[in-house]
Specification:
Low-confidence stretches: none
Strand order of the largest sheet: 3-4-5
Structural class: mainly beta
Strand content: 25-35%
Number of strands: 8
Largest sheet: 3 strands, antiparallel
Order of helices and strands: EEEEEEHEE
Mean pLDDT: 87
Radius of gyration: 17 Å
Shape: globular
């Protein structure tokens, strides 16, 4: 059976739903005590899983004239925290975490790519073998 892409979105890794990819009319809504917003994901030539099992939207005009392969658009607001100062860029992280790394994970090319990423964004950090067993790549939303 061929592998298919399943895009999950949620307020944290434990509360996620399957996203509607390439469908700007149906963004994934997120509402937590700290953040309210919506997320749209675009994937060129998408042939993955949809939330309701319908055929995926394979193409969209977002990619017209662009060489990009995917995009993640997030729109929303951080909610005020009573008695606490507003958020700063160090508190807000953006990145990815993974369930696992496959046995055949290409460590050499990955490490080379991370060196380049850290030249572009020196605040980017990652851990391949964290204590919780979920590898991740993160960066502060705004580095000072």
């Amino acid at each position: 059976m061929p592998k298919v892409l399943r895009v999950l979105i949620g307020p944290d890794r434990f509360h996620q739903v399957i996203a509607r990819v390439n469908d700007i009319g149906k963004p994934t809504e997120i509402d937590t005590p700290l953040f309210a917003g919506r997320v749209v994901v675009y994937v060129k030539d998408f042939r993955g899983v949809t939330p309701d099992g319908t055929p995926p939207v394979k193409e969209c005009s977002y990619f017209d004239g662009r060489s990009r392969k995917f995009a993640i658009l997030i729109e929303g607001r951080f909610k005020a925290r009573e008695g606490i100062e507003p958020y700063n860029g160090d508190e807000i992280q953006f990145g990815s975490d993974f369930d696992f790394l496959p046995e055949s994970f290409p460590h050499g090319p990955f490490n080379a790519g991370m060196r380049i990423a850290q030249m572009v964004d020196p605040a980017t950090f990652y851990e391949e073998h964290p204590a919780n067993g979920r590898p991740y790549i993160m960066s502060p939303y705004a580095a000072w």
